[in-house]
Design brief:
Number of domains: 1
Largest sheet: 8 strands, mixed
Order of helices and strands: HHEHEHEEHEHHEEHHHE
Shape: globular
Structural class: alpha/beta
CATH class: Alpha Beta
Radius of gyration: 18 Å
Length: 248
């Protein structure tokens, strides 16, 4: 698994969007037994912290120590540095396995074998993520040009799975039809700039060119942002749920 997020992990925790409560409420409604859950690729721990409110024990793994160092703590969360494809968890332990904005980095075949090994009978797997940010027609066009033209060649190949809304990832489970969710947030202009600077393609650009490409669009963003302190930003949520062992 690539590690694009250990650098500036404090910014990742600060600027990346959280998932809405209604998504967790829906997910909780699907899982009758809330004993143990695995949050795989936990990153900054935001999902683990929410799951800890309803599950007895959350096991949260990531390959980045720096990310976990900035994760929120709770008595029933156990963080560990482990790859998604090979863990030290016992067989048939989890009622739910969650992967948020991370599965596109995994070796699908090896990870799904680990899912089947560690899942209980009738366990669920939930793949979550978020697509491209939406604000307004003018700002969306600015960000689209930046995304495709300025940093387009700096995206890792795996980014295509997010652009395809996780519809093209292998998903060899009995899939449950889920509602569509859109995450709506109130952001300042500074928060938007901070978020753009966490993009992995931006980091790759900086590494190769020695300058931050976000700087080139800041004045244009300011021009179209207007006088409002905050604006609504929207993220279409990527969400797939499947039954693990029934289809193994």
């Amino acid at each position: 698994m690539k590690d694009n997020f250990s650098s500036q992990s404090d910014k990742y925790a600060k600027y990346r969007p959280a998932y809405p409560s209604r998504l967790y409420q829906y997910l909780n409604s699907l899982v009758p037994n809330k004993n143990m859950v695995w949050d795989c690729g936990t990153g900054n721990g935001q999902v683990a912290f929410e799951l800890a409110k309803t599950f007895n024990k959350v096991f949260a793994t990531d390959i980045s120590q720096s990310q976990i160092d900035h994760a929120p703590q709770a008595d029933n969360i156990g963080y560990s540095i482990q790859p998604a494809e090979k863990t030290n968890f016992p067989d048939h332990q989890f009622d739910l396995i969650v992967i948020a904005q991370a599965i596109h980095w995994f070796d699908f075949e090896k990870f799904y074998a680990e899912v089947r090994r560690t899942a209980k009978e009738n366990a669920l797997i939930a793949v979550m993520g978020y697509g491209r940010i939406e604000i307004s027609a003018e700002l969306d066009e600015i960000l689209s040009r930046f995304y495709h033209n300025t940093i387009g060649t700096y995206w890792d190949e795996e980014r295509k799975y997010i652009d395809e809304h996780y519809k093209t990832i292998p998903f060899p489970f009995e899939e449950i039809q889920v509602p569509k969710f859109v995450n709506k947030l109130r952001w300042t202009k500074g928060h938007l700039i901070g978020y753009l600077k966490t993009w992995s393609a931006v980091k790759h650009y900086i590494k190769q060119n020695g300058s931050n490409p976000v700087d080139s669009i800041m004045s244009t963003i300011e021009q179209h942002w207007g006088d409002r302190e905050e604006r609504e930003v929207r993220f279409p949520l990527l969400f797939r749920v499947g039954k693990v062992r029934d289809f193994a």
